[in-house]
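The passage that follows is intended for readers who have already worked through the single-chain material. We present the inputs for a multi-component assembly, then the predicted structure in tokenized form, and finally a short commentary. You are encouraged to pause after the input and sketch how you expect the pieces to fit together before reading on.
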Amino acid sequence: MTTIDTTDTNDMPPQDPNAVSITINGRTVEARKGDLIIAAAESVDEYIPRFCYHPRMSSVGMCRQCMVEVEGPRGPMMVVSCMTPVADGQIVRTDTPQVKRAQEGMIELLLANHPLDCPVCDKGGECPLQDQAFSHGAGESRFVEEKRHYEKPIPISDLVFLDRERCILCDRCTRFADEVAGDPLISFTQRGNNTQVMTFPDEPFASYFSGNTVQICPVGALTASPYRFKARPWDLEQRESTCTTCSVGCRTVVQSSRDELLRYQGVDSDPVNWGWLCDKGRFNFQSTNSDDRLSSPQIKSGDSFASSSWSDALESVARVIRHSREGSVAILGGARGTNEDAFMWGALADAAGITMRDAQLDDGLPASVFSYSQATIDSACAGGTVILLAPDIKEELPVLYLRLRDAVQKKRIRLIEISSHETGLTKYAWKSIRTESGTAAAAIPALLAQADIAVQLASGPVVVVAGRPNLAESASHTMDALSAVIAVAPSATVLPVLRRGNVRGALSLGLAPRNGNDAAAILEASAKGNVDCLILLGADPLSDVADIDLARRGIAGAKFVVAIDTFLTASASHADVVLPAAAYGEKDGTTMNLEGRVTSVVQKITPHGTSRADWMIAVELMTLLGHESNFTTLSDIQHAMSVAVPGFGSTTTAVAIKRDGVVVSVTPPSSASASTSVAAPRNSYEFRLDLSRKLFDRAIGTITSPSLANLATEANVFIHPLDLDRVGAAEGTNVRVSNSHSSIVLPVRASSSIPRGTAWVPFNQLGADVRELVRRNESITDVRIESM
Amino acid sequence: MTGGTWQHAPDFYAGDRPQVVTSRFQYEDSYTLERYLATDGYKGLRSALARPANEIHDEVRSATVLGRGGAGFPAGNKWGLMPQGVWPRYLVVNGDESEPGTYKDRLLMERDPHQLIEGCLIASYAAGLSQCFLYIRGEMALAQERIATALNEAYAAGYIGKNILGSKFSLDIVLHWGAGAYVVGEETALIESLEGNRGMPRLKPPYFPAANGLYGQPTIVNNVETLANLPWLLNNGAAAYTAIGTATSPGTRMVAVSGHVNRPGVFEIINGITTFRDLLYGDEFCQGIRNGNDLKAFVPGGGSAPWFTPDQLDLPFEASQVGPAGSMLGSGAIMVMDSTTDIPRAALTLTRFYAHESCGKCTPCREGGTWLERILSRVVDGKGTDADLDQIFEVGESICPGAFPHASNEKLGIAAVPFPYRMNTICFVGPSAYAPVHSALTLFRSEFDARIVKRTMIKVTAVSE
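Having made your guess, compare it with the prediction:
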């Protein structure tokens, strides 16, 4: 007999006022007020079939598949479990003959006009309609009429095809487009039995998030061109990983068949991506499979490259490093690799006395941005005010855009945007304030002192989302603007939005600049002949450094250039030795997102050719350079990392971390940032140049993915419609854009989202390169625009 | 196009009965402000404005003005469902009369628009509503024009707008034309359409838009006829109103009779007292079945109501008696079928209408309605089988689980299944597609049996080699 503990009830934890206890099929289930029956049931593995219900979107109760019985005052009532919240004492039955009949009936109705072309449907094998027809259907249809016919499939965007015959009109894709993505470009048309999902006339479903509709489609109605007819689901093998296309760090599954990457699908990580991916992150797996990948080490002989063995190539690199003058070896890049890659290259640099290193390419912010108290995506979206001192989040960090947009839509936060032109978040901003490039810092004290803004800032937590809004403007302007905001709101936290996949990891784990020797300083030193060996670690300065003149002089001035990359990029083609690197999906490890969240990345396929992970190359070079290195496996490195980097916990190994990862607190060494720059007032005849990224550009991972390559636009210069009149040019005609450094010709476009006096040029698009006009030592770039 | 003859106007027959809403129909110029003012027009409003709003609300409540749109919910109670202190709150007038067989609201709008406008003003004053939207069915061109003209007249005369009749009460009335969809007669679909969205019903709960309606604000949706009762009620008082009809169904109601009667048309009958027999055979009503034929069946409350047969002729217009008998009074449309009627084809006509008018939002209605129509049209074409008739009930079970309401029938020896039905759909369109075919098949099975293909087994003998 057990003794009953008669502890005073006051010692019991206080009862959750939102706790609700319901009974499902005789089992007591603890839920919370506001939970839906369908979710409460799922939490105890009572699966209720559904099609339209999606936990990350509002319920619409349209498919009527999830009907269950709830005991009511007048006996059992059939209710739609995706629309009915739990209530204390509720008695739910999902297994009565009535429920079974209703669910079977609904499956039969849904299948009535469904073509049942499962053998040729990509969804077959992972199809909720197919699965639930087996698990909750009667097994046989009594529908003998002729089915609906539509032309199939029709392209509704460059990436997505729609088969209206398969569609069961669950409203998931249309709801996603409207509710989650904010691109309501697909909608129901017609009515009754002819209802169909359709785009608007002459307006394709051009959303950065269109791939999600394919993933959440419960039938094969929506298919994405990169995966169509590529594999059957049962042939796919998958591992859960993290997307490193940008620094949001969305969780994905990487799926392959026959050692070829075939598809990424979003995984629902509550603190990060909620299951969503952007189209770039979803479809750029094609670049890993590209035939243009480097497959063996290349050594330059004369004007061309010759394939070589790894030992010859590495030995020649080691020889150059050995014979380099002291302090004349430089490492640029590392932000595209894993934490382990960055740590090993940092360790190599430390061992070999390499002080010149920078994971960024003068296109981010100084590491001092990490010394402010840091926010997370969740904390930014939780409540209060979010101040954007950032590039266009929708273009650079699309899934962060979804999270911020959601928080605004749900009225949790208010956005204050301070930017030089309108962005994707402008229409969701509570206040969107235009400041010309170079003037934000000076304007901020007065802006934030406005009565309503001051009240808003004082009303709750403040998060500053800080990134590099304009590549033709010095980073110091953003840092000054950031400190101006912090001066007004000292308790504000900062969410740094540096773009590259693992830039935070690389900076935190050994590739942050030392003594102010950042990428610009390294390239400048190289241009002066002070770099004997320039190592490009997945970096392509000729494509990414805003001051292209500096990049050219830096590459040309280096005595020996080593490029470690997946492709023969513009910069790699100038290298003396090129080492093929394993790409995403070809190596295991961990990565760190913009919050400092460490998650795993996994190897799913064999590396292309003889390519190797960056960390292996570092280990080999260490050995060749005569430094002791006992690293043979990834876990050796992870162990060393947890010892060497304070704050990088021992739980952050690829094995230990779970889906949502671990947020670590590692502050990269921040060197003295460049002196505060004051922008000279703009000559009123000239335009201030605004150079920022769009999601799809000429980046190597995009142009080597066939389905994305066409999505980049041609280079244009955008100015205000009134400025277009002033310039005297017609829309779409060529204008001369010039300053004292150079002159280029670009087509001009009018856009009212650009304020007067500003000229916006998207970065790295096809056509003339506006970077010719940018000089690093000028903190802003002014240009003249003339009609031709 | 004002004045002149009515455009396709259905006939109205006054008879010797109290006229609550049709008193002006006798005048050729009944739709003008002049005539309206000459016949006690806007007197009810004037007396209402002189009294506190809650008193008017109480008066309407005590008169038990039943909603005339179909559900029969008392208007005074409906107004009381709105949360206190939430502004703005709206009145939406449901003039999207599109239930098959129903054309009473159309007459009220075409022939006495000021009476409706006065009703809107009284309701808005009594229930404390900020703005009124008049939603009129797209096809009713004359009604739209008459209402628009009347609104202009009333604005000019100071009956609508700021500080009406010198009081502190102000109201704007906005006229909105529908685009031709049956489902928009459903109040939440009407609100969606008014907001500029696709006319699709909203999910229930909330069951009433009173708390969360147009633009998310408290909203009262009332039928045209319901509001048209208010001027008379104010002029004559609740006691006079409840003196007509029965305690549970006071007042009069407009019914529209179509089909095989000698005199189809609109009649203002006495609630709870007039029976279907009075209506169909009475001299001041329809004057019997055409050509002296026998009555075969009739639809008592709009196309979506289960059918009655002569067995139910003595039921009065009283919801508490019609419901248990297996149907509803609905929108006040009676469709009469005489002995010459091809029952399966009649059922097909109605079912086809509802299948076509489905908005496509929920599965049972979208797929089930069309499926029913397809089976039925095969049966009507003489290509159906026994299995098809069973399948109709199976599809119906997926739309409306459990026993579906139908009338009793002495000859067949079946008892009534009372109204209402249970449904798997969001709104009533899906069940409405099933109701006609269910009634037809339950009450007239033999007519279907006569149509279907009889398949006889052919004996196959094995041939040995």
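Commentary: The CA atoms of residues 69 and 378 of chain B lie 34 Å apart. Residues 224-243 of chain B form the longest helix (20 residues). How closely did your sketch match?
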